[in-house]
Design a protein that fits this description.
The chain is an alpha/beta fold. It is built from ten helices and seven strands. Helix 1 packs across helix 10 and helix 4 packs parallel to helix 5.
Length: 232
């Protein structure tokens, strides 16, 4: 399974969703934001090195943290040296070795945002419960449709309370054509982000963890995530 976690704009919590979903699925998370990496960094080869031909993608995966991670560099030189054409095969090499891959995609509709969607069997769209964020999400959904990658799930992130308004959730699911999982806004999520750790390691009995468990179960049961789709 290769799942691209994407969003129509930054600031909706996409990286947090990707990291915590990878933790629940025991998957490798790849930080594919070549220009603005956001997941925890560490020493050693990174995605910039992989895309420049200086490192093997599997050997660049870090297994010493709470979540297996292929980080991305943060230097301008590394960004310029990266060859995006190598990206898809690099992701597939990681999938062949580890089985499950979650890609933290760049936000928006720039050219590099389409690469993770192209590499993936399916994508997961993260939106905030605002009109602007949902409108941006619809445009990202159309990008995935054009590329031919199915939308497996939608995360309605940072909702004020749970259960989220069911009528609004149903309308969003109908508009985007995929099941919607709401995830609450909470201090626990903020503390986990600051610590660079999954929420489960900070507050295993929290409501946020329950929602990520539910999300992981939904992703695992989605037909498009059960294997390679579109001949990939």
């Amino acid at each position: 399974m290769i799942l691209a976690v994407t969003a129509g704009k930054g600031g909706v919590g996409k990286s947090t969703v990707a990291y915590n979903l990878a933790a629940e699925l025991d998957a490798v998370v790849i930080d594919a934001d070549l220009g603005m990496a956001d997941l925890p960094a560490s020493r050693g080869p990174d995605l910039h090195d992989v895309l420049a031909g200086r490192a093997d993608p599997v050997e660049a995966v870090r297994e010493d943290g709470p979540v297996a991670l292929l980080p991305c560099g943060r230097s301008l030189g590394g960004f310029r040296a990266a060859d995006p054409a190598v990206f898809v095969e690099s992701v597939r090499a990681v999938r062949r070795h580890y089985g499950r891959v979650i890609i933290d995609s760049p936000a928006g509709l720039a050219g590099d945002a389409g690469l993770p969607v192209l590499a993936a069997d399916a994508c997961l769209l993260v939106v905030r419960p605002t009109r602007a964020a949902i409108a941006d999400g619809v445009r990202t959904r159309e990008l995935a449709r054009v590329i031919g990658t199915p939308l497996a799930q939608v995360v309605l992130n940072r909702v004020a309370t749970l259960p989220e308004d069911e009528a609004r959730t149903d309308r969003l699911a109908s508009r985007l054509g995929a099941p919607v999982t709401p995830v609450p806004d909470s201090d626990v999520v903020a503390r986990a982000q600051q610590a660079g750790r999954p929420i489960r390691s900070i507050a295993p009995d929290s409501q946020a963890v329950d929602q990520f468990v539910s999300l992981a179960e939904s992703v695992e049961s989605a037909p498009d995530c059960s294997g390679s789709s579109n001949g990939r």
